[in-house]
Amino acid sequence: MIASLSLILLCQLTGEVFVRGLGLPMPGPVVGLMLLLLLLLARDRFVVLARGPLQGDGVESASRGLLAHLSLLFVPAGVGVVQKLDLLAEHGIAILAILAVSVVITLLVTVATFLVANRFLARGQDRP
Amino acid sequence: MSDNPFSLWVYLSQSPLLWLTVTLLTYAIADAVSLWTHRHPLANPVLHSMWIIGAFLLLTKTSYTTYFGGAQFVHFLLGPATVALAVPLYENRKLVAAAILPMLVALAIGSITAIVSVVLLAEAAGLPRAVILSLAPKSVTAGVAMGISESLHADPSLTAVSVVLTGIMGAIIVTPLMNRTGITDFRARGFAVGIAAHGIGTARAFQVDAVAGVFAGIAMSLNALVTSLLVPLAVTLLVR
To answer: Which of A14, A81, A125, A126 is nearest to B155 (CA)?
Structure first.
């Protein structure tokens, strides 16, 4: 458990160092995500790597634990709304309406794109 | 034991213990209510935790900084949780590989739609530039969005609030919207909510259908990658 959490933190730390060091416009945890994915894929190819948290479901179960209550992690940031009450009094209705419309548009466009692309792919596979 | 109950409050209200406990306890109760209502979309645990804790802070005249002193331990886990998204991606790599083409197309179009729609709507509404920049990364998970906002010299705390509001709205709207439009492919439904409403949408997807949850998680992690590259580009092109 401790080793698995350390590995996750180490991936994040490496990502952070990498991003800051090279001045890249992306967040460190995203690089950490790619790093952990590469480690998991590399472990299946090279047996040498399958030790510590990378064996016997170690890092996998720690990650599942973290992700099981993902929405809890958004609560502290969400409560930050109390700091923004003056801004919300001024632009609140506009911001809420914009976010709601944007969410609906994004949902519909994404789901339609997925279905259309999926149909084209399936049709392509049917033909010999 | 203190003679004066007020001095006990003064001590506790400044300690991380109280606010960490309030955060976890409120969420646990909100989550139990959500379960009790059979995961009704309007019983969203984040939404209700947010206003209950917010109202409590206003009533007790506690500053957000004091509250965050305790809640930061929960907030910190957003970073490791982003890294942890590698695991569902890895575990479902066969499912992902089988649907890789529709996913990549939907990722590109969906991610661009999420950014461009909010930036254009905000410009049309005449919002200040700093607000527009802070809203732009709203569809991506909080840790990533705040990082993007910081690199744009926008307001990361406003970004965090808009991220959470977006997530809550997406999680509430997605099930009725998809049922109304008659979409039954849970891969597509999950993927859409992961793009539009990140972790809160993904949590919702897992409540509705396991396959939807997996695809939402994948969409959220891919979107975290793409959005961090797209927002700076979109902002230079669209925001005057």
So the answer is: A81
Helix axes A28-45, B210-238, angle to 10 degrees: 130
Tokens representing residue A124 in the block: 């392509």
Give the number of residues written for chain B: 240
In order, the DSSP letters of chain A are -HHHHHHHHHHHHHHHHHHHHHT-SS-HHHHHHHHHHHHHHHHHH-GGG-SGGGSTTHHHHHHHHHHHTGGGGGHHHHHGGGGGHHHHHHHHHHHHHHHHHHHHHHHHHHHHHHHHHHHHHHHHHH--
Is A8 within 8 Å of chain B by CB?
A: yes
Are A110 and B192 an interchain contact pair (Cβ–Cβ within 8 Å)?
A: yes
Q: How many residues does chain A have?
A: 128
- Alpha-carbon distance of A19 to B43, in angstroms, equals 38
A53 and B CB contact within 8 Å: no
Structure tokens, A128: 């010999």
Q: Do A110 and B200 touch (CB under 8 A)?
A: no
**Inter-chain residue contact B49 with A36, CB threshold 8 Å:** no
CA distance B211 to B190: 7
Task: Answer for the pair B235, B138: CB distance below 8 angstroms, yes or no.
Answer: no
Q: What is the ipTM metric for this complex? A: 0.86
A74, B204 in Cβ contact below 8 A? no
- B188 touches A113 (CB < 8 A): no
Residues A24-59 have pLDDT tens digits of 767 788 889 889 999 999 988 887 777 777 777 889
pTM above 0.90, yes or no: no
CB atoms within 10 A of CB A5: 18
Distance from CA of B2 to the nearest CA of A (A): 30
Closest CA to B119 of B134, B98, B101, B102: B134
For residue A87 the two structure tokens come to 């801004």
Give the residue among B103, B163, B157, B137 at the shortest CA–CA distance from B224: B137
